[in-house]
Design brief:
Length: 168
């Protein structure tokens, strides 16, 4: 009952629902989520590459293989999109002209991540996944530099291996 009343009230008052990371702005931005998502894309490529194709005629094994590879692909694509989303939020809500003036690689870094994110959604490509991780790490270093924060690279401590860029 209250939901119906609320919807009517929203229509009468012209209230629209909006979604954003935070257009207040809250000032809380961190490329860590993009780095974890990029490592996930890499890990799903590793898992898919190591998945053994079952022998023809083994329907149960083929069904299990199809289910597993479909889940790997869906998760990989979702995390490639998450990389793009996280970087777009920082780019659109945090990066200012003075950041680009001081760090002219920001434009090409974001553009490259967007293209690599799409490439990783389109294909199972270990090399593209590794390039995505490297591009997001570079972006993380640039992001923290805009805040005047030194960074360090440390082990991700994830099954995928690799490193994460941390503020020092």
């Amino acid at each position: 009952m209250f939901n119906a009343f609320g919807r009517v009230l929203d229509r009468v008052l012209g209230i629209e629902t909006v979604y954003a990371h935070c257009d207040i702005p809250c000032g809380i931005y961190d490329p860590h989520g993009a780095q974890i998502a990029a490592l996930t894309v890499l890990r799903l490529n590793q898992l898919a590459g190591n998945l053994a194709m079952p022998a023809p005629g083994d329907k149960g094994a083929m069904d299990a293989y199809g289910n597993t590879i479909a889940r790997y692909i869906a998760t990989k694509e979702a995390h490639a999109e998450l990389v793009k989303h996280e970087v777009r939020i920082i780019w659109g809500d945090y990066i200012r002209p003075e950041h680009v003036d001081k760090y002219p690689d920001l434009h090409s870094s974001v553009f490259g991540i967007m293209k690599l994110g799409s490439r990783n959604k389109q294909n199972m490509d270990l090399k593209a996944a590794e390039e995505l991780v490297a591009a997001v790490q570079k972006f993380a270093e640039l992001f923290w530099a805009t805040k005047g924060v030194q960074t360090r690279r440390g082990p991700s401590n994830q099954t995928v291996g690799g490193e994460i860029v941390y503020p020092a």
